[in-house]
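ok so I'm stuck.
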Amino acid sequence: MGSETDHSKIAGIGHNLPEEILVQAWTSRYALAVVELLKTEGGFVDDPVDRGGTTKYGISLRFLVTEGKIDLDEDGRADFDLDGDGDIDGFDIRKLTRGDAKFLYHHCFWKRIDADNLPRPVGEMMFDQAVNAGIGSARRLLQRAINRCLERAASAPPRLDVDGDIGTKTIAAMNWVLRWGALGMPALTDAFRVEVRLRYRAIAERNPSQKKYLKGWLARADRLGRI
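replied:
not stuck anymore, here's the structure
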């Protein structure tokens, strides 16, 4: 698809057309990224050990209760109260479609991290980890990965504060890494994977109930930046 035109309104023409048509669009880059994400996230899961609760296509009940209250069609009902009973619960998770998941991932993650304006595959790696760990964690993972690269060059700029603010300093440091011949995108991608693995191992160490997920998490880390 072409460039993003989110929530554009196009006036209908003729008596048999609606007064306005709501258009939801995203870039072809997002279309590819979300297909890969959905392969990783899988279908319906109701695992009592999963801290997010009932999940479908990676959309957890905890997340949907917070983000599903939007009312874009202005009908007075939360858009993701899919069974129309006045609340958002596990029954609504069961009714989620792949289209619903794609909309939520675009609206709540891809756009909020401005992935289309990050270089490939940084935007895709950030998107994956924003979904899996939260936007703040994904931003800090990128900053830690940049710092890991900066440590390898004697003439590098100062290391970043790991504060989750992807502002001008972080972008400038990332661009320095990408331009430095001995580093570049391969070094940044590898450093990001390392930081993600460390995060997953720390979770399993802190909470032994999560160790059963570790093998899958590490495989997810290894796939980052390869698609």
